[in-house]
């Protein structure tokens, strides 16, 4: 019997539904929520409402694209945690209802595990154990993946996530949310060495991005003259605005360069500490063209085998939930109808 799973992802502002058969993704349909752009960040209540509007049409589209019907399914999977509680609840309630109505098993999936396992969707796949740097809007982690269901976090951010560093920088530059992809775009035409931002000295494999954000704030307030907090240095708002307008590609390229070096220097350290040379990246920020290129180059230099999920499986998507559910199915890790969403969750 082929294992056929319908999977839901609704942890933040993407409503995504995927179908997989025997670990192969047949469809992965995602509806983005444009409603948040005007607010400069995700508004939780609006996100929940948009999920409720999108979930049925997106499910229908995913099923149609896969060529399967509800009757063909063997299991329903859903992101259980972590995420925005109202958003998660929409997916969880919908998935539970379907599992109950179809009388098939339910599988709860951890969103961060799923980001890592997105690397098992396409060939070539990493062999175990592999390292994964997961960089998203809410998390920055380095994990050792011993098997699809055994993951060990060996480093994580102590404050902001890498995606937040991108998004908060974009906000300071007056760019709309989510700013990560826009910084990526501007950075392509900029000089990454024009401006220099500090690299935090955090021991071990943990990350910190809040100091970088502060130094960018003062750099902009001082119209590029200094990163030091001294109100007497501050330029007029008009001067700052002009400075940003005239130097946007170089500012974006320089900030992006620093974020990437912070990430990759820790990843190099992790490979040295663990001796593991199968290395992956995952999460929304792994869609960044500068990070993808620098990661491949670092891999060549240090003799790693490198893996990056296809673009559609980097940002939030149900394909990664489906593949994780497939491995949980193989190990008999099912949930019952008491499954609840959780905003925060330990591994
Ligand atoms: O994994 P994800 O879709 O959602 C979370 O689980 O948080 O990641 C979203 C994050 C946002 O911060 C977004 O700005 C960032 O990924 N992102 C990017 C790019 N595409 C998405 N950051 C930099 N460059 C990109 N191309
Ligand atoms: Zn995510």
What descriptive keywords fit this protein?
347 residues; Nucleotidyltransferase, domain 5; 41% helix; single chain; 9 helices; binds zinc ion; five-stranded mixed beta sheet
Count of distinct strands: 10
Strand order, biggest sheet?
Answer: 3-2-1-4-5
**Would you tell me the overall average pLDDT?**
95
Q: CATH first level of the largest domain: which class?
A: Alpha Beta
Percent range for helical residues? 40-55%
Evaluate the radius of gyration: 21 Å
Bound molecules: 5'-O-[(R)-(carboxyoxy)(hydroxy)phosphoryl]adenosine, zinc ion
Order of helices and strands: EEEHEHEHEEEHHHHEHEH
Largest sheet: 5 strands, mixed
Query: What coarse outline follows from CA principal-axis ratios?
Result: globular
Indicate the CATH topology of the largest domain. Answer: Nucleotidyltransferase, domain 5
- Could you say how many structural domains there are in total? 2
| CATH homologous superfamily label of the largest domain | ATPase, nucleotide binding domain
